[in-house]
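Is this the right way to post structure tokens for a design question? Let me know if I should format differently. Anyway, here goes:
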């Protein structure tokens, strides 16, 4: 047990980066499995905006 604590104290930055990487990968896997709802038509957009739920609008460009 003491060797694990010693390792953690000596390599805290590496452990922190690995935890961050694991969280980052987990979030992206969840977003891949459950993508946001697609909006195909203007009627779909109007329905979502008038539903009473908060709406996040994303805009992507290559400029």
């Amino acid at each position: 047990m003491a060797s694990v604590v010693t390792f953690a104290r000596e390599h805290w930055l590496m452990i922190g980066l690995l935890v961050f990487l694991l969280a980052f990968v987990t979030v992206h896997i969840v977003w891949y499995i459950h993508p946001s709802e697609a909006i195909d038509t203007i009627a779909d957009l109007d329905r979502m905006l008038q539903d009473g739920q908060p709406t996040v609008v994303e805009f992507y460009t290559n400029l």
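Format looks fine. Someone answered above. Worth noting: The chain has three helices and no strands. Helices lie at 2-10, 12-33, 42-49.
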